[in-house]
Amino acid sequence: MKVTLLLALSLAAALAQAPSSRDRKGAVASPQERGKRAIDETLAALGGDRFLAVQDRTESGRAYSFYREQLSGLSLATIYTRYVKRPDPPVPGMLWVRERQSFGKNERNGAVLFADDKGYQITFRGARPVPQQTLDRYQDSTLHNVFYILRQRLGEPGLAFDHRGTDRIDNRPVEIVDISDADNHTVTVYLDHITKLPVRQLYVRRDPKTRERFEEVTLFSKYRDVGGGVQWPLDIQRLRNDEKIFEMYSETVEINQGLSQSLFVLPADMKVLPPAK
Predict the structure, then answer these.
(1) β-pair type (97-103, 118-123)
(2) H-helix or E-strand spanning residue 250
């Protein structure tokens, strides 16, 4: 009798947590409609129009790099991000963002700059173009980051959402949504059932030369209001083929600080070095 009661209670809890498969009029909703509804709820949880109005962001904290699950590097890091005005609708495959990653106390240990389809590693010696493989990987991972998709790619021709059901991650219920684009690239996003915020994303990419398969997983946690109701994760971890490769723990995150354009361009008098051999 007790076992039956426990099973009944468990079933009731599961049904209560499961998203409705019907729309507001009571009709059965398709996976695409449920996926779009889940993404709309996530956008609202992130701040809605205030999230979409974010022009720039500054994240400062500690960056950890790993090799074969062992800590291989630690640095103070500041990441500056500035969104570029996009066309409407967005052009598939194009990036509308600039980013500068600065490292070390007082940012004296150099920086990496990604802007306008170029990437540079900046030191006291000058600016050296990053390897093409590094630039390609940055562009690919940014284009398929759930926060970038929500900020810059909504309305893009061919962008589709597909609800794949529910699951549990770290003992919390999540909804699973596939976000696919016109090039058949898919990002699988896991959304906290209660907060609606992203807790995990999965993206599979292949090396353009070797066709080797890489499973890229990013984990998001410790969300905070970073201004005006906009939510952002302070802890971001990245794994490649189940091996942890990077973690950024932000102590501060600021938005809409009016970041200077000079942060995202090379100074006119800076020496541009030849690419590394």
Answers:
(1) unpaired
(2) strand 243-255
Nearest to 205 by CA among 138, 160, 159: 138
Read off the pLDDT of residues 16-74 as tens digits, 9 standing for 90 and up: 444 556 655 566 789 999 999 999 999 999 999 999 999 999 999 999 887 555 565 67
Distance, in Å, from the CA atom of 267 to the CA atom of 271, rounded to the nearest integer, reads 9
| The Cα angle at residue 103 between residues 133 and 115, in degrees rounded to 5 | 45
Contact assessment for residue 103 and residue 76, using Cβ atoms and an 8 Å cutoff: yes
| 218 close to 205: Cβ distance less than 8 angstroms | no
DSSP state of 69: T
User: Which residue has 């597909």 as its token pair?
Assistant: 162
What the block records as the tokens of 225 is 């209001």
Interacting residues of 177 by C-beta distance below 8 A, sequence separation 6+: 35, 38, 39, 161, 162, 163, 164, 188, 189, 191
pTM: 0.88
Encode burial over 49-74: b for 16+ CB neighbours within 10 A, e otherwise: eebeebebbbbbbebbebeeeeeeee
Whether 13 shows a pLDDT value over 90: the answer reads no
Q: What confidence tens digit (pLDDT) does each residue in 77-124 have?
A: 999 999 999 999 999 999 999 999 998 876 656 899 999 999 999 998
Q: How far is CA 143 from the centre of its chain?
A: 9
DSSP category for residue 148: H
Secondary structure class of 89 (helix, strand, coil): coil
Looking at residue 231, its pLDDT comes to 98
Architecture of domain 28-264: Clam (2.50)
All structural domains of the chain with their residue ranges: 28-264
Q: Above 80 in pLDDT, residue 157?
A: yes
CA–CA separation, 171 vs 173, rounded Å? 7
Alpha-carbon Rg for the chain in angstroms: 21
